[in-house]
Specification:
Length: 109
């Protein structure tokens, strides 16, 4: 919140951080006054996943179950975007395991 306070008081029209966007601010404004004016918006995402999901069916997935893109042989997806769906919990260890699995699949392709 301190960084946003500094940015807003320096004249920023909007400041992002700590899960919030403060908009409609300007010189002399603070996160609190932006919030009071209705310019406070929850803006938070830390666990993006599943945007290039793996699956057997090209109609519902980007990559096959080993991470190779259906339409582009030789192109592999090995990060959280290959998750078939959101894990619902912290994904880092699963991402590391998936990357290792995908690396083995690439090596033996
Ligand atoms: C604040 C915060 C706290 C978190 N805490 C936890 C936690 O405690 N435990 C946990 O399990 N998870 C946590 N996560 C989530 C975890 O960090 C992510 O889910 C994970 O890092 C995603 O891994 P990834 O490899 O899919 O993507 P990323 O780690 O985002 O890697 C993507 C990489 O691709 C690169 N890139 C992007 N575009 C291009 C391009 N066009 N060309 C080349 N490179 C490109 C980026 O620079 C980046 O290095 C947290 C996330 C945040 C933001």
């Amino acid at each position: 919140m301190l960084a946003q306070k500094i940015m807003l008081e320096a004249g920023a029209l909007a400041a992002y951080g700590a899960g919030w966007k403060f908009a409609g601010a300007g010189p002399g404004r603070s996160p609190e006054s932006a919030a009071a004016a209705g310019g406070m918006q929850r803006l938070w995402s830390a666990h993006q996943m599943g945007t290039c999901r793996m699956g057997r069916d090209p109609a519902t997935s980007v990559a096959n179950p080993w991470g190779e893109v259906h339409s582009t042989p030789g192109l592999w997806i090995g990060d959280a975007s290959a998750f078939p769906s959101a894990s619902g919990t912290n994904p880092m260890a699963t991402i590391m395991a998936l990357a290792r699995r995908t690396a083995h699949a690439v090596a033996s392709a």
